[in-house]
Amino acid sequence: MALLIPMILSLTVHEFAHAWSARMLGDDTAERMGRLTLNPLPHIDPFGTVLLPLVALMSPGVPFFGWAKPVPVNPARFRQGVNMGAGMALTAIAGPLSNVALAVFCAVLYGLGFRYDFLAGQPGIAFLLDRMISLNIVLAVFNMIPIPPLDGSRVIDWLVPYRHRPVWETVTRFAPFLLVAMFVFAPYVLAGPVSAMNALLDRLLFVVAGRPA
Length: 213
Prior knowledge:
The protein is an all-alpha fold.
């Protein structure tokens, strides 16, 4: 349960960021469906947000993972002048960026807790902040992998040159298999970027705390 709460909070912010960015571009589809909110309930997927993480927590060796209900985005509703491909890319990247921002915010709060001792005697809050930092880093990095339906694929779909479209369309056809493979090899693929981002946030935490890194 101590890991499930950070997961739900992080996924809620991620989906809210998708809905907010789409609204800023003119698409109010998510807003009209009640998804432009930081209330976790509209974003919860019974299987991906609750059941799967609980099974992982109760099963040693099973990776802790989950997802929320995808936010609906209709590029046809973007305001005039917004390129559909660019708009979809911006809407997609808003999710991982929100996780990075949340990890930075928690690192700063954690550092302030050390500096001013307001975390003394509050191990639960310290644990929550620590889990929020690490979990949001993983969510940001994982979601930027360019495999549909992950957010990174929207960015590639916009950037790929026309002459390379057939190659990209072949990749998208094999996306389900690539995604399964990614789940299997995720610890190895994500280790480098996640470690690098953790190191940066550790340095930020120590700077805010006023302690040498």
